[in-house]
Every structure is written in C-alpha cells, then in structure tokens.
Fold this protein.
Amino acid sequence: MSAMMFYSNPTPLDKKKHANIKLQRQNNYDFAANSNSLPVAGFEFFEASRSFPIFFVKNSQEQYVPIAILSLRSKGHELGSNWEGAYVPAYVRRYPFVLSSDGVVLFDADAPHLQEQDGDELFKNDEGEPTETLENIVQFLKTVDQGFRLTEEFCKAAAEKELFSKFSGGIKLPQGTINLGELYIINEKSLHEKLDEKDVYEWFNKGWLAWAHAHLHSLGSMNEVLKRARNAAPAAQETSEETSA
C-alpha cells in the first residue's frame, strides 16, 4: 500500500517558493473517499480498534503491514466526509503533508487545504522561519513516520516468531458471504506459546504485547463496519428511489 496514495502532486515545501502559502484547516476527508482500508501504526491500535478491525497484509516485499478495514465495499466506505464518531488514522490526518523517505517535508500542491488567501501561515518574516503551525505539523509528521518505522520492527519480530496466521473467516451477509481475501492475524495461541520469558519482557517494554492484544481486540469491531453498512443502505435506497421518481 503506497505511502503517497492521496497525493496527486507531491511537492517539496520551500520557504522561498512557498513563503505566502497558508493552511486552511478542513474537517473533510473526501480525499480518502475511495479507500476501503488504510495503513495504521501500532501506537494507534487501541484507538482504532474501537472503530475498525485491524488485519495484516503482505506487501510486495512479503512484509506484513497492519491495515484498518474501513468497509466491506470493493471501493470506498460509509464514513462520509468527516468520519463522525470514527477514529481517523494518522495516515489520513497528516494530509496534505508527508515526509519523504529522506525526511523532506512534502505537500500535495493540488490540495484545497493550501492557498495564499485565508488560513494559518506556515512561514514568518523575511528569513522564512517556520511558524508554530508548521513546527507542529513537522513534529506530527516525524511522530507518524517514527510510529510506522517501529510498527515495521514489530511486524518483522512477529513474523520471525511465526505468530501470523491466515484469516480463514468470512463475513455472512443476506446477499452472501464475503471472503476477506489475503488477510492475516496474530495467532493468540502462538503469541502465548512462542514468546519465552526474555521475549515477553522485551515485548512488554516495547509496547508490542499491548499492540498485539489491541489488534486481537479490534477484530470484534467488524460489527461496527457492518453496522455502518446497514445504516448506509437505507439512505442509498432512498436516494435511488428519489432519483427514479
């Protein structure tokens, strides 16, 4: 899953070229409207688990990556524009900014969040010093980037301990059973059996035990996904009927 999936025009932020740019804060996540799943970092597992089930998938390098399942649709979700009542992953909240692999701050030049009229300034004075707004953004980006790096370490350690199992369940709906495909979970039995005393101490200190249990707890949130789908169905039906009337 690409780290730049929402960014149509990623551009390095330059204090000279973008001296007058301002951030217009928006409680609108329409840029993620076509996503049915998103990457999440380990530090988010507890909060995300209340809204979404967290599974693992394999990337092109055969590495395990945790994702939050937003919807059972093949494309998109039922969260609307502002995701009211649901957790918003850091992967989404950082937009329209992101750090490049070498630590350069990028922004999506096509994002409506940035313009030169209204909003919070990113640079101050002729020297182009960052404002508090930009400093907070950069700190958040670094926190998120570090969180994903630590999550990679967690997934690598879990794979080395052979803790992952393929998810074999399906979701039964009135229209049939949905096969969730190539998803993986941490096997709770393996988690308890394959970590020795030294491993448990290390995993506890790194927060990995908590992450593993938060992931397992999150699987019950599939009911939240189904509930949102059921609530969205009557609205879609009404729209369809109004259109055909």
